[in-house]
Design a protein that fits this description.
alpha+beta, Butyryl-Coa Dehydrogenase, subunit A, domain 1, Butyryl-CoA Dehydrogenase, subunit A, domain 2, Butyryl-CoA Dehydrogenase, subunit A, domain 3, four-stranded mixed beta sheet, four-stranded antiparallel beta sheet, 10 strands, globular
């Protein structure tokens, strides 16, 4: 089985539609929502929810193609669910990455349910994203003392034997989309957050479990919205849980603690699926910057002469070509990681590699783009400076560049987390 580099027709069709959305709905409002952080773009959310429902789904989430036609099973086509999702996210982030992050759907919360939940839990919690109102979900992992080192989580879940409920106490910070996922807005459906907590602190990573905490749960509150450098159309929240009671069946995975790292592996499986998608988002921002620079240079009569020896090129030509090389190489790494996810192949190494590469590339490309454009790149009259600010988050959330480099090194060298830190 080999990787195909030609864009499948279903993906190309979706990209065409999303490019229209990106140009006409996202780009036109980018500056306004960047300037007015924490305002919610309800019109975009409602439009995207309606559009996604009309296409047979309710969220940006992997969907397997139906293979039946006329009651007969067609010849099985190669799976492209994650490849399609990566292409969609790249295009939407090309439009505006902050808007992409408020596209209704499951996000990391749904990904956690998909990776660690049972069939019954997936049916119960994921079906709501196709309902009438836009719905959101988020994942609560980071704490003040547990950022990249997720094994240091201190949030605690204790089973109340009398009521058969989990009682959760703790505080989560930097929850992307946490406000819209947990607060009950009239315009939105009932969302949820997936809270990672320990059911046995003495068991270390073996005691980690994820819990679905539904919007409006008593004892849970959004206490803060971060003011950020970039992705300002998206909310990033702090969430506090004080004696929050969660139904017994809302635990993702086994409630029994064994001498394994099953709970921790559930978290990592989530990231293996989503890190290439974060990388795709960064690539969308980088592509926007490269295309803008080339358009501006073309207007000034500056031609990029491909195929010449480097010593015969101008400095700007070399810079632009290097930006394009890095952009394409990063995209190829994403394609490999999502192809492996679609084909059920372990992709922890490729997932982290794509995230590292994309984080580096989008940061360097947007910085170089601002440098090339000079005052035009620095001016708030244009979107380039905003893309520069939006870029850095790619290297931070869902595992920093440093942590993902450790993951890559451990995978290649065969070391455990304890052996290589």
């Amino acid at each position: 089985m080999s990787i195909e580099f030609e864009t499948p027709k279903p993906i190309a069709q979706i990209q065409f539609v999303l490019k229209t959305v990106a140009e006409n709905m996202m780009r036109s409002q980018s500056r306004a929502f960047d300037e007015n952080e924490h305002e919610i773009p309800f019109s975009y959310i409602e439009f995207m929810h309606t559009a996604m429902r009309s296409m047979g789904g309710g969220s940006l989430a992997p969907k397997e193609e139906k293979q039946k036609e006329g009651g007969e099973l067609k010849e099985k086509r190669p799976p492209i669910a994650y490849q399609s999702l990566a292409a969609q996210i790249e295009m939407l982030s090309w439009g505006d990455v902050g808007f992409y992050l408020v596209t209704p759907g499951g996000g990391l919360g749904a990904a956690a349910v998909q990776s660690a939940g049972s069939a019954e839990q997936r049916a119960k919690f994921l079906a709501r994203f196709a309902e009438e109102k836009p719905t959101f979900a988020a994942m609560c992992m980071t704490e003040a003392g547990a950022g990249s080192d997720t094994s240091a989580i201190r949030t605690r879940a204790v089973l109340d034997e009398a009521t058969k409920e989990w009682v959760i106490n703790g505080e989560k910070i930097f929850v992307t989309g946490g406000d819209k996922s947990f607060k009950e807005y009239e315009q939105f459906g009932k969302g949820f957050v997936v809270v990672w907590a320990s059911i046995d602190p003495t068991a270390g990573r073996s005691g980690m479990r994820a819990f679905v905490v539904e919007a409006g749960t008593k004892g849970v509150s959004v206490t803060k919205l971060e003011h950020k450098l970039g992705i300002r159309a998206s909310d990033t929240a702090s969430i506090v849980l004080v004696d929050a009671r969660v139904p017994y069946d809302n635990i993702l995975g086994s409630p029994t603690v064994e001498k394994t790292t099953t709970g921790f592996k559930g978290a990592m499986a989530t990231f293996d699926a989503t890190r290439p998608l974060v990388a795709a988002s960064g690539i969308g921002v980088a592509r926007a910057a490269v295309e803008y620079v080339k358009e501006q240079l073309a207007e000034k009569g500056v031609e990029i002469r491909y195929g010449l020896p480097r010593q015969k090129m101008t400095s700007i030509e070399r810079d632009v070509i290097e930006m394009e090389i890095q952009l394409r190489s990063a995209w190829l790494m994403v394609l490999k990681a999502v192809w492996m996810a679609d084909n059920k192949k372990p992709n922890a190494l490729e997932s982290s590699m794509s995230k590292v590469k994309s984080g580096d590339v989008v940061t360097k490309i947007t910085q170089k783009a601002v440098e090339i454009m000079g005052p035009l790149g620095y001016s708030r009259e244009f979107l380039l400076e905003k893309w520069f600010r939006d870029a850095k988050i790619t290297d931070i959330y869902e595992g920093t560049g440093q942590i993902n480099r450790l993951v890559v090194a451990r995978q290649i060298l065969g070391y455990s987390g304890k052996e290589l830190r």
